[in-house]
Amino acid sequence: MKKALVSIALVTSLTLSSVGVQAFAQPSATSQSGIHNVLDNRVINQINVDNIYNNIDYLQQTPRVAASEEEYQAVLYIKDQFESYGYEAEIQPFEFFGFTAPHTVELSVGETSLTPNSFTYTASGEVTAELVDAGLGREGDLAGVELDGKIALIQRGEISFGDKVLNAARAGARGVIIYNNAPGTLNGTLGGANDEFVPAVSLSQAEGQALATQLADGESLTASLTVLGAESGLRTSHNVIASKKPTNKNKDNGNVIVLSSHHDSVPGAPGANDNASGTAMVLELARAMKNLPTDTEIRFTTFGAEELGLIGSRHYVNELPDSELNRIVANFNLDMVGSRDAGDLVMRTVNGQPNLVTELAQASSYRLNGAPTPFNQGGSSDHVPFGEKGIPAALFIHSPLEPWYHTPEDTIDKISKEKLQDVAQIVSTAIYDYASFDNMGAKPKKAKPQSVDAQMYFEEDVQ
Ligand code: BES
Ligand code: ZN
């Protein structure tokens, strides 16, 4: 699907402000001459893209799965970096219910070794027993089938994998094999941990159907099923938080901007772009902005367990009392901001509407590049818990995604310094536009369209 820029003329009382109108009259001249103001230059001059690149390189040496030792080492590194810039950094632990995938998954029937996958939340165990066809594994399918002490062979479909395993286990089965009902491998989840589960693996349609046919022909089959290392239970992951307090206590406007990323990755993925890139950019912007005069608190955060369902960022917003939540005026969330193989920079908001973050970033991208960064609804990332609390929030990401997303190929060699530089400039100047001390009193600290007040740009799917 192609993306198109659509502009909508907005009539606002500021439409005739001189900067906005002039800028729109000659956008190409603006982009070529790179007209941006003194405040922009003050922050841009502090940014060193090599620092971002080098921190990505460091973090992407290994996957950083939530609650793993590798994730914790990344957390300590991030804290260390913040401290080396002169910040106090807090590590915020949180617990969640997790699952560790098995290290060994094997299945043989008779003399034949098969190629099983395990189900998320399977139990561990070693079972050798007679194989019995249990249809679709519904309670009705099991009536009249002797499963006690046996391994159940069940076809995918009609009810959940978890219910199939529970039904078989309650009928006495000591292991379960679920085979696909369509071509392709089956990688499933039992939905959540349950003490009643027995070792459960999946097979392809071809392998499963062949076994079902042999059983239907009256053959007696003995299966050996091995699942070792699977473990469900409470896990601990961590967020890292460093705060730049307003320069002058007397002129503190009481507002907070949160700049965020997630530092965890999916299993097997070094996560150079997803999301060492966002994390390294949060670090560099913390360093670059450390000594700039500001009247707004800027909170630099990296969240854990995003890949398991935004768990760290949810924990962070849920822990804040209303009085603290109400102080947060904006969340800029960086996730996948440096891939050479991804498309252009876009923003995503929870409700698809513009907000303070999109307005500040459209204004800064327009000042810097002559084109406002478009926005659209969506993006499952850490801006969502903020947006759901009514806080203006946006995800910064390149679209379309690169082919390496969530793969072992998400490595440093695919990272573009140009992409990093562009996002770092747009985001930091947007934040500084709001937080800069210089403008104290001269502008209302509310949502306020700036040099792009005549137009809003958003992204729309076109055929
Ligand atoms: N880095 C991605 C963000 C993302 C946003 C990817 C939009 C693709 C489109 C993030 O880490 C991610 O992979 N999120 C998960 C969902 C999450 C709640 C587990 C996803 O989008 O599948
Ligand atoms: Zn991500």
Describe what this molecule looks like in 3D.
The chain has helices at residues 18-25, 27-33, 38-44, 49-59, 69-84, 139-142, 161-170, 205-216, 272-289, 311-319, 322-325, 356-369, 383-388, 417-435, and strands at residues 2-9, 89-100, 104-109, 112-113, 117-118, 125-133, 151-155, 175-179, 200-203, 222-228, 231-244, 256-262, 297-303, 328-334, 344-349, 375-377, 393-399, 455-462. With 463 residues, it is α/β, with parallel strands linked by helices. An eight-stranded mixed beta sheet has the order 2-11-13-12-14-17-15-16, sandwiched between helices. It has an eight-stranded mixed beta sheet with strand order 4-3-10-6-7-8-9-5, with helices on both faces. A hairpin with a 2-residue loop joins strand 3 and strand 4 (112-113). Bound molecules: ligand BES and zinc ion. Ligand BES is lined by residues 274-275, 306-307, 309-310, 335-336, 379-381, 397, 401.
